[in-house]
Amino acid sequence: LIVTFLGRLENDKAPDKFLEAFLIANKKLFKKIHSIIIGSGSMKAQLENLIIKNNAISDIMILGDISHQTILHILNKTDIYISLNRFGNLSNSNLEAMSAGKAIIMPRSKPREEIDIYTDKIIPKSAVYRVSSSNYVEEIANAIIYLYSNRSIRLELGRNIKRVSSKFIHGWERRKIGRA
Fold first, then answer.
1. Do residues 8 and 94 lie in contact, with contact meaning Cβ atoms separated by under 8 Å?
2. What is the pLDDT of residue 171?
3. Residue 34: CB atoms within 10 Å
4. Average pLDDT of 143-150?
5. Is the pLDDT at 30 greater than 50, yes or no?
6. What is the pLDDT of residue 169?
7. Is there a contact between 12 and 87 (Cβ–Cβ < 8 Å)?
8. How many helices (H) and strands (E) does the chain have?
9. How far apart are CA 33 and CA 180, in angstroms?
10. Which residues in 67-87 are b (16+ Cβ under 10 Å) and which e?
């Protein structure tokens, strides 16, 4: 099973929390899952050190900036996609994962801070697995384990997000000719 993180390796995307959660889940699952982290940024060295410290070099691959075609290929192989973006979850990376029909774990909206209010309006609860916060590493790890252990739910989430997102994500070709 492949768990993917795609985004800038900066604090606002919480790649460190993703990695900590993945390491916990992978340990509890006896190293039966793998991760691909795609992106570059100021936290890359910190993430690499955490991987080495946890003897997880064979379980986690960090790729820097890669081509869009390669990203699409990796998303095609991904089972679980995780976004822990602290300022909203309708990023281009997430839209790609939605279009690819991947089971997605993301934080709940923060209405008081006006974060992801629109996301809640267009993405029903049946389409993504929401965690309380990008800071709750144990909860994120448990979400990974839950989706690992429940293939039918993982596949259903993927189907649901693909169907729902097709209503608001349109290909570039349709946008250029004004049909979107």
1. no
2. 61
3. 17
4. 98
5. yes
6. 86
7. yes
8. 8, 6
9. 38
10. eeeebeebbeebbbbbbbbbe
SS3 20: helix
Q: Which amino acid is at 39?
A: G
Question: How far is the C-alpha of 73 from the C-alpha of 56, rounded, in Å?
Answer: 23
pLDDT, tens digit (0-9, with 9 covering 90-100), for 97-137: 999 999 999 999 998 999 999 999 999 999 999 999 999 99
Rounded Cα distance, 162 and 127, in Å: 8
For residue 38, CA distances in Å to 47, 91, 121, 148, 153 come to: 12, 14, 28, 21, 25
Closest CA to 81 of 97, 67, 59, 93: 97
The CA angle 84-90-96, to the nearest 5 degrees, is 90
Let me know: does 88 contact 110? Beta carbons within 8 Å: no
The amino acid present at 54, given as its one-letter code, is: N
